[in-house]
């Protein structure tokens, strides 16, 4: 490739090498396969995918040098995720997918915002598993990407009882439940929520106490009903006593004395009944 310089100056020349894409298997992006029945459910949280993030280009100058393209904001920039790489689905919308990327370089300053993919999970991916490299998921670099950037990674899978190797549009490889928990924790730390797990545990411990409180509240309601019944009976007894005292006074009798004699007669009759 020749880059013309100022008039009379020797033109700058660059050698550009074109290589065949490293993948020898058929590549079907999700934009192409999403029309298949049930395709939308394949990209669930924790699914492993490959993402074509794009590349950070270099700018060839007429002096025969290369420089960064930081002046061209419509291209990928240094510091942004780039090239084709393994990623994990976080969420799916009708028009795009939220993913977090994976890297084989240990994140030095990631804190608790990253986690390592289990070797057993990587072993199900024919390319990444055979590389014997470790992979860490960087949850602080969550990004929404187009369906046109998503494709299935090369994996080992079974289809209709036959073991196969290739890019399955059913996206058969996903994180384990343990890894999904690590994903959730790293995502929370990436947005500054550092005490979620502890708070969740405290809330879980409060549930038994809440159930005890609910049971006590039910007992309180029952006691209030009993108290109301007793109050009504007490008021009814007071009215009856006042009526009885009024009638006794009219008859020239003493109510307390009449009640005492009535109780004695009742006890005597009960004793005679038991004796017979």
Q: Can you walk through the features of this model?
A:
The structure is a single chain. By secondary structure, the chain is of the alpha+beta class. It has 6 helices and 13 strands. The longest helix is centred in the last third of the chain and has 55 residues, at 196-250. The protein is rod-shaped. The mean pLDDT is 85.
Q: What features would you highlight for this structure?
A:
single chain; 276 residues; alpha+beta; seven-stranded antiparallel β-sheet; two-stranded antiparallel sheet; 6 helices; 37% helix
Strand content: 15-25%
Rg, rounded, reads: 41 Å
How would you sum up the major sheet? 7 strands, antiparallel
How far apart are the first and last residues' alpha carbons, in Å? 131 Å
What is the H/E order? EEHEEEEEEHHEEEEEHHH
Total number of beta strands: 13
SSE-based structural type: alpha+beta
Q: Whole-number average pLDDT?
A: 85
Helix content: 25-40%
Number of distinct helices: 6
Low-confidence stretches: none
Instruction: Identify the overall geometry.
Output: rod-shaped
